[in-house]
Amino acid sequence: MVIVMNPTSKNSAPQDQVSSPIEEITTARAVVLPADVVEHDEKSVNILRQKGVELHRSMTQEDKELSAAGYEHLEAQKIKAGTPTSGADVDIQEHHLPFLKIEEILHTSIDTKDAANSYGLSTTEAQARLQRDGPNILTPPKKKSALRKFLDRLFTMFNVLLMIAGVLEYVLLGIDFKANFQNTYLGGILIAVAFVNASIDFYQIQKSEAILASFLAMIPPSCRVVRDGTISNIAAADLVKGDVVLLRTGDKTPADLLLFSATDLKVDNSSLTGESEPQERFPLPAGSQLRPPEAENLVFNSTLVVNGEAWGIVVRTGDHTFIGQIASLTGGENGNESPLAREIARFVMIVSCIAILFAVVFFAVGITTVYKGQAAHTVTFAVSVLVAFVPEGLPSVVTLLLSIAAKRMAKQNVLVKDLQGVETLGSLTLLATDKTGTLTRNQMTVTNLWSGIQMYTAFQSNNDEEGVSQFSMSASGMAEIVDIAALNSRIKFDRMDVPFEQRNILGDATETGLARFAGRHIESDYDDHVKRYPKVFEVPFNSSNKWALVILNKPHASGYLTSYLKGAPERVLARCTTYVKDGVLFPITEEFTASFDAAYNYMASRGHRVIACAQYLLPGDKYPLKNQFSKNDTDYPSSDYCFVGLISLEDPPKHGVREAIGKLRLAGIKVMMVTGDHPKTAEAIARKINLILGDTRATLAEKTGRPIEEVYEDEVSAVVVHGDDIDQLEGWQWDQIFSKQEIVFARTSPKHKLEIVKRAQALGHIVGVTGDGVNDAPALKKADLGIAMNISGSDVSKEAANMILLDDNFASTVNGVAEGRLIFSNLKRSIQYTITHSTPEVIPQLFYVVLPIPPPLSAILILVIDLGFELFAALSFAWDKPETADGLMRMNPRKPVNEYSIKVLKKRALRRSRTLIATSTTDTENRGPKLIRRSRLAIFFSKIRAPFTRMFWEDLLEHTDDETLVDWKLLSYAYLEAGVIESIGSLLPYFVVFWKHGFTPRELRITQKSNLYFSHSSPDFINGRGHTITAAQQVEALAQAQSITYLSIFIIQCFNLFAVKAKLSFPFGRQAVSNIWNFAGIMGGACLGIFIIYTPPLHYVFGGSYHLSPLYWLIPVAFGALLLIWSSLRVLLLRNSLSKAKVRDIKGLMMFPTMRTMSIRSRR
Length: 1164
Hints:
There is one protein chain. The protein is of the alpha+beta class. It is 45% helix and 14% strand. It contains 41 helices and 31 strands. A hairpin with a 4-residue loop joins strand 10 (445-450) and strand 11. Helix 28 packs antiparallel against helix 31. The longest helix is centred in the N-terminal third of the chain and has 34 residues, at 183-216. The radius of gyration is 37 Å and the shape is elongated.
């Protein structure tokens, strides 16, 4: 792994020996190969890494109580679990035991001297253990049945109301079939709408799960196992404890194995522990006392063997493996309901309560006034009021809008498992991302080369110093470095029948990076080049030598053999006496050593891994072609080498990551890194990708020349937190960490990641987590939005996530955030548009009962409004574009988390905690207060009592910067502003039509009170002007009046379609009318309305009249224009408040393309 620290002296040569752990950490510049320096526990150097977080100011007791508020439930969960949150609590102990004890416990037979002669288990014993312990597979997470999922979506509040109303209509049909026959259609439509809403949502969920299932469907893995002394291939699922397994390069470890024999074994643990580098593993006859993740004698299920060969005993299978225990953490987390789901549920509850309340009130008023004991008619009337308040098409509109957005995201290679996750991505306030494989490519890449006289860059660079040249094979020493990279290598390929560029390379990450570089620059075919110079002798890299040597049959002027050496720069230089310049050898001098140090510092200061290359053209008289070399007697050339050059590598950020993080930060989203890697490696990458721009305590101490102990956390804007500190952090320290703009958590375990997510959520953050490893799965599931990688991601992480990046492109999250914010904006417009017509539907019903007047709208016409043209128009908002080019991505999140919001949240939590904690009841074991467990009944009654408490109103009326889906501004516009305009605009033509047919408003009131008119059997009515109005004329007048009321709502809503878009700009111009689907929705609604009103056969069900003159349409058109004028005034009134929500520019952001990594050195 890479450890990067600033050297104590830039001019001092690297030391070959390390005197102490402290000295190593303070003088090391880069570790050259994965195991070239034994990694020390960071706890041994805590003089450099201060424990916890320190403040410059002192905190009062009140400050500490307030900081602790909001975290009580997390502390209670820890106490209840009874386990620490460190990574040491994984239940694996077998690695502590010696071989003999393991062999005795597992009743198996191994040969530690010659592993191939191991007997293993007998086939009979293996079958018996398989029956007893079960197959070696992870128990899949419990899933709801398809029927349960459908029922969950059917029995939502809206759908339940619709079904109850529909059933009531059929109950009335049973009471009086003839009088209520017309209501058959109404009841059927209401129930059908509920099922359609549920079916649309269910279909979308099933489709997403089917796509995910296709990704997880894999060929069952197999493995090589020794049973009855014979090696055979069996399914990995059939492995049992005690089996002896053979691992080779490219294999996936089939279970948790204890090694008893190994040759140059390296495994990739990145998906489990977050380590970016392959880890060396070897047998330890006496066992290991380290934690399971660091134990050198353990290899874990699902990890990839990148180099070497090994034999191991199966010690854990299935759910008991390391990966299985992490997966159980995931299963223990229930996940969070999305912010959109919570807000829709809240809105549905509010609207439903209002609808039920008004329906009951109108029923009571109706049965005592208009209908006077006619229960059937009163119920139908109450249902019409209920229908008017409940936006029946809203669930379908929300689902379809999210589905359309999900399809757009799918085209950008983002699979959305949970539709509401689309909007959640736009609501994020904090994004916690893994490093290896998510931000970086998990692929070592050559960056710089030094020939002994000149520094070269292998890529176009944005930060190299003057004098650095572009790499060229014709430059001095470059051809030799490329040869060493290609020929001194132990890599293998997954296949040989495809071009070099299309192969997967199996081997150590460093050698893989060198091989890719060499493959691009060797003029001839790579395979032919390697075959042309066969290996004669080889000394593989190991942790004691810290170099790798190979002798090739490569003739030269003075002999046949050539020796290539590569490894730790200080070790390689110590074996060199000369260096090459333009093909001529020169002795190494102090001047050259100083140049070497400068080049080494240049590379290491950028966080690169540095490799030195040397060669020795073996003289033919001393080393003939048939010379026998030996490792045991060191009978091979180990000195007098010629230094060729330095080559540096790094795991670079993925393309587009730097710009993506910059854009997310400009959108007000805090991006933090949570990785299992070393703190210095994590910080180095963070500084290259816009994640850290400011100073940490360490960098500020270095700049100012102060001891790090004298630098306080509130002096800096960035923090790097070590995983071992997390368990000891107090509430105020968590607050201090999350108050930073730039945060990195390093050396974290899966439980640490989970704890970080919970702590952030406790502060009100809407948390997104990206990751690809098994170790990310618990946090992915707990987060408000889990984002997994498809290509590099594990199956466990994909199952836990809400969203999957199909091409592993982190930059897709930026598009997702923009899409999420846009869909929220469009959803809000759609809801604002949809519920505006509730007022012009309810007020006529109110007039019908209170004045009274003939009903301006029937219940069936209200349904036609809600499910007819409203549905077409509301859906068209899905294709609306942002009002401005970057408006949405330069605004703060809609629920910003800042000092004020956290203080408000903590005060609420403190008020609640004081009511929930019994001060007299304490937990003597844990010496803390004990939370009172309340029954469901108690919780229900507390909710009933809540509106009558002071705390309820304090919470409700407390100022907040949050923007919710349905807020007071939206309700004010829909019900009081646009709703009133529409009500007047629809009732005025109603009265005009009646006036045209001979009825004044006063006469309408008289006729309705008598309850004798406006039916085919009504008596003639003589108006105030002496005109006689027959029953047929009365029916025609009512039909035309109801028709114009219906059409007026439609016409004004057509104007409202554009009025609701006015937030940052006026509802005019190209931007407002750019969505052609708005006009398609208007056309669809117009066709439906005209068809219903002007088609005689439909008049029996819907009413209507083909005699209605289009001249009446001019009245609602005028009110529609008035609505546009009002919305323009709202833009002027609200413009100042919206401009304050814009995110300020961030100084230092690097927004140029990610072509290579940036220097981690401070720019001064």
